[in-house]
Each structure stands twice: as C-alpha cells, then as structure tokens.
Amino acid sequence: MPKIAEIEGTPNPNALKFILKEPLTWGVTKSYNNAEQAADDPLAAALFDIDHVINVFYVDRWITITQDGGADWQDLAREVADPIRAAPAATDQSATVVAAASEALANLSEEDQQRLERINILLEEEVRPYLQHDGGDLHVLALEGSLLRIHYQGACGTCPSSISGTLRGIEQLLRTIEPDIRVVSS
Fold first, then answer.
1. pLDDT digits (tens, 9 = 90+) for 35-83
2. Which strands make up the sheet holding 182-185, listed edge to edge?
3. 47 φ, ψ (degrees, to nearest 5)
4. Is the separation of the CB atoms in 8 and 17 below 8 Å?
5. SS3 state at 4
6. Beta-carbon contacts of residue 6 (< 8 Å; ≥ 6 apart)
7. Region for 10 from its dihedrals, namely left if φ exceeds 0, alpha if ψ lies in -120 to 50, beta otherwise
8. Domains in the chain, CATH or no CATH each
9. What pLDDT was estimated at residue 94?
10. Which is more confident, 137 or 13?
C-alpha cells in the first residue's frame, strides 16, 4: 500500500502530482483519459469513480490526477488520497515491459528502428525528465517517414503549453538529429 510522501502542483492548474514512498509500477506507464479505459485497472477505476477526475497517469513512485476544473483541490486531494493509499505496491513487471517494447518496434524497418532509438534516447535525456517533474510524460505513437506522432500523458495532456510551446520545443530539439522531422500530438 503506497503511502503519499508529498503532493506537488504542476504547471497545469487542473493537475496534482502525488509522490509516493512505494512504487505503483516498475517502469510501466499507466495513462487513462476516462473510466472506460481504466476499467481493468482497480486504482484508476477507483479514482474515476470520484467526481471531477478526468485523467489518471502513473508510473513508478508518482501519480498525477487531472480534474475538470470544477472541484477545489484541497477537498479533491483528500478524496483521491484514499484509493492511492489502498493501491497495492508494484510487483515484477519487467517481462511486460520487454514484450510491449518489442511489439512496438516489430513493424518498423531496421533503419526506422535505429532512427526511433536515437529519437527515444534524446527524448529520455532532454525532454521526459522535465515533463515527469511536472507530473506528465509523452508516449511515442508512431514514426511515419518524417512525421513523429506523440501522445502527452498526465498533467501534460491538458496543459495549454504542451500543445504549442512544448511541442515546438520538442520538434526543434529532434531536428538536431532529424532535420526534416515534424512532431504532432494526438
């Protein structure tokens, strides 16, 4: 049962980041935009049962909850704390992570796999730490020629700056290794 060590605000005023003492996962990202998507995840489902919760995103030792703007954070934070504290701590998920990563790369050519690896290394070093610090992340959906499709997760998913400024910053950074790349958020 993960205990909450700290609660942090994010650049998105409708999202709070809960730092935990025990991990919920070991490197496996869980991101849900609605109760239907979260149906098979007991923690996320319990959080979506709470009024005003519109997004649940968690990985390792933190979870970000996004609300619709209609609730007072002081009250809502107390309400979402109960399911977080009741959630079981992480179990070994390394096999799941390896299988998911292999499946995602299976359909790419060897050249595109190498390109995507370089892109992911740059994202991991230069972008994800900042997004994660702010309670979010990004997931690469596809690399199609010079088009990279990403999906923002957690607090970043509904943050106005991620849709414009951050997206353009990511594109400019990636152009240092892929001069013709275009980055779009889905």
1. 999 999 999 999 999 999 999 999 888 999 999 999 999 999 999 999 9
2. 136-144, 147-154, 182-185
3. -70, -40
4. yes
5. strand
6. 18, 19
7. beta
8. 4-86 (3.30.1370.70), 95-185 (3.30.300.130)
9. 40
10. 13
